[in-house]
Amino acid sequence: MSNMLRDMNETELLGVRETVDKLLAEMKRDKEIRYQSKMQPDSGDRGGVGAFADLDHLFTYHDDATAVPRYVAIRSAAKHFAEVVLQNTPVCSDQTVALRTIREAVMWANAAVALQGRM
């Protein structure tokens, strides 16, 4: 991937960035629409998974071909960020934590896509 990014010209990189920006904007709009229609958690609930638990949805495999571009955009952006971290930080425990956190962010972002913001 890093070689692919290095080989891209500025116009191609801008195209990738625009695609990612459009997907993020679409995801934000979708989330706002779903939030407005979602019932609010009980006053005693802290808004975690228990607030809207739909265990069938949570523990079902979500095979949605239309979501693939979102997964690709998330992983591509995370990989690029990880490359930047590796190129600009010394090998140390903080670097390791940074890379693990990027991986964790990808996991949660992918979960948000798969669950369509229902949790």
- Overall mean pLDDT score? 79
Query: How far apart lie the N and C ends?
Result: 32 Å
Number of helices: 5
> Residue share in helices?
55-70%
The beta-strand count equals 0
Shape: globular
- Low-confidence runs of at least 5 consecutive residues: 39-46
Summing up helix and strand content along with how strands pair, one would put the structural category as mainly alpha
- Rg over C-alpha atoms, rounded to the nearest angstrom: 17 Å
Strand fraction band? Answer: under 5%
Total number of distinct structural domains:
1
Task: Outline the biggest β-sheet.
Answer: none
What's a quick, concise take on this entry?
The protein is mainly alpha-helical. The chain has helices at residues 2-7, 10-37, 55-58, 68-88, 93-115.
Folded structure, characterized:
By secondary structure, the chain is mainly α. It has one domain (2-115). It has 5 helices and no strands. It has helices at 2-7, 10-37, 55-58, 68-88, 93-115. α4 packs antiparallel against α5 (93-115). Mean pLDDT is 79; it is low at 39-46.
Mind sketching the topology for me?
Elements: H1 2-7, H2 10-37, H3 55-58, H4 68-88, H5 93-115
